[in-house]
Design brief:
single chain; mainly alpha; 13 helices; 2 strands; about 60% helix; disordered C terminus
Length: about 300
């Protein structure tokens, strides 16, 4: 695995902490940098966790280690093993499926709650899902069929919410390894740049309100996966996943979600980028500041006039 591949995975696992509104510290950024540069070997990464106290830092390191491991099986057992590897000692009995019914409010659903399947049905539904997926063949599928199927499978898995907590990060790691298993390695940082979009897209794929004419849709997830697999210039704006986003210009606030999912990746980029790239990043905001300042000055008289 070369430095570029490591950088992509590190950026992804760090950014994915934002799906649970968590933020990594500078310590894990330094660990990632040293691993990318070969100073810290893969075998020593888990030892580094002993010096970390931040929950998100520890999970990010464990996610990286789990993703670069070669072993994978398309099974419920694999999903549980991933959860144990990520959250062992951090959560109580991380290997157990949830035993309580669960609902959760989602920003993308305008504050509505997703009601997940009853706890006593999870095991059977997981078994059926994996049995079906194990028999599915990718041979002969065109590109559209591939990303549509991937979106359908991962959204169905997430919609079960099989664990008490931290489902999205567990399933994200499973999904990255699933794609590699299907012959689609993580070749870009699309997921790293769109972690919150990923969470919202999963929520939209699971939500239905017939009375309001709202139906489950995987179109957002399909756009993300299509870009992950085939690249392209599609812009993945987390606001677009909101139930009532107006594409004609109404801007919905994301409570800083984009900044959270971008910041960790940007910090890691700065750590491993060349001096020229770093200089370019620092210079970029300066070019934009002048127009903004001019706009504020132009707006000032209007505000004053209103008061009169």
């Amino acid at each position: 695995m070369d430095a570029k591949e490591r950088l992509i995975i590190w950026k992804t696992v760090i950014a994915l902490q934002a799906v649970d509104a968590l933020k990594t510290s500078s310590k894990v950024i330094e660990i990632a940098k040293q691993n990318i540069e070969g100073v810290i070997a893969d075998e020593a990464l888990l030892d580094e966790c002993e010096n970390l106290r931040n929950f998100a830092d520890i999970v990010a390191v464990r996610m990286f280690v789990n993703i670069i491991q070669n072993q994978f099986s398309l099974s419920q057992f694999e999903l549980v093993q991933i959860r144990k590897a990520l959250f062992g000692s951090l959560l109580e009995s991380p290997e157990l499926l949830r035993t309580a019914n669960l609902s959760k409010k989602e920003w993308a659903l305008d504050g509505h709650s997703l009601v997940y399947p009853k706890a006593n049905k999870i095991k059977n539904q997981l078994t059926k899902l994996f049995e079906t997926e194990t028999l599915f063949e990718f041979d002969g599928l065109d590109s559209k069929q591939i990303y549509k199927h991937c979106a359908s499978f991962i959204s169905s898995l997430w919609a079960l919410h099989p664990f008490e907590s931290c489902n999205t990060r567990t399933i994200a790691v499973f999904f990255i390894k699933y794609l590699a298993f299907r012959g689609i390695p993580l070749g870009n940082d699309v997921l790293a740049q769109s972690a919150v979009y990923f969470r919202n897209a999963l929520a939209r794929a699971a939500f239905c309100d017939g009375k309001k004419g709202i139906h489950k849709t995987t179109r957002y997830l399909e756009r993300l996966i299509k870009k992950m697999i085939f690249g392209g210039r599609a812009v993945l704006d987390a606001r677009e996943t909101h139930l009532y986003y107006d594409s004609n210009g109404v801007v919905l606030k994301v409570e800083g979600a984009e900044q959270k999912e971008q910041s960790a990746s940007d910090r890691l980029d700065e750590k491993v980028s060349t001096p020229k790239k770093t200089a370019a990043k620092k210079a970029a905001p300066a070019k934009k500041s002048a127009p903004k300042a001019a706009a504020k000055k132009a707006a000032a008289p209007k505000k004053a006039a209103k008061k009169k």
